[in-house]
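Section handout 9: paired folding examples.
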Amino acid sequence: MSVAIRFAGPADAATLHRFIVGLAVYEREPDAVQVTPAELAAQLAAPRPPFECLLAERDGTPAGFALFFQSYSTWRGRPGVYLEDLFVDEAHRRRGVGTALLRRLAALAVERGCARLEWAVLDWNEPAMAFYRTLGAEPLDEWTTWRVSGAALARLAR
């Protein structure tokens, strides 16, 4: 079975939303998804979408996605790619879909002159970490991700 990778467009919003919900369930946050298919479609149709997304299909069936956006390295003075989410539907796992998505994303990063491709992984997700290591990725153990959101974000903005 072959894996095809293509960019997602507004017409793919329902599929993308289904995968996002699947990812939330996998990451033990089944009620965390707030975005709607309509919002995703509008964002993908925007003149400057806030993200790009690759969709993987196995024999024409949607199998997974990689949602990403441009980052920037101040030290290298070059753009990078930040992979926000990678998800492969359970029925398609261990069939090369995740590898195909990451290979295409790495190729895009190289084509665009990016200095790096990076992402975060939940500390309990050992299967993902083992998979990423097989691709040559390394954890940045000296870095800790920080976030401000919700009420704290509103307070900080005042």
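Moving on to protein 2 of 2.
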Amino acid sequence: MISIVDYGMGNLRSVQKAFEKLGVAAVICPTAAELAGAEKIVLPGVGAFRDAIRELKSHDLAGPVIDHIAARKPFLGICLGLQLLFDVSYEEGEWEGLGVLPGKVVRFVDRPGLKIPHIGWNQLKSVGDPAILREIPDDSHFYFVHSYYVVPQDDSVIAARCEHGETFTGVVARDNLFATQFHPEKSQRVGLKLLQNFTEI
């Protein structure tokens, strides 16, 4: 069973439908009680970091997410759900994150000809052999929508990188924690394969 965190932001239904296409039960959970004892948690997200962290905390969902990760249970963050794991974001101010992974969230540097936000398909280059990318060919294309990206303090958590004017982190992995800057639920066949890999962890 997959528990999808509902904190009022994100394309929850499309994530749920992607798991259902794989034949995997996925429930949308808007309360801490529903997340308690979850087998696997997915934290999706679309929108501003400030609003997301405020909603997570105001609905008492931050604690269950942190506890789940601390227990080394399988966890998948998607897009903003990746960024929320870090210490701080500098998106339109300075905002404290969940502090699960040391590091920061920063904006792409404006450069001539560089489109920000980064929207569309881009190739991923894996680092090592993370379980979440099992049987996914290197340089596979995934779908991105973001203006900010994470800068981990510890490079050992970087499981894949991508290029958009500069090199940025596309996937992080630590123990049973995984998170992607792209949207696997919008990334067709390879995205579904990644979600299947998560269900099998």
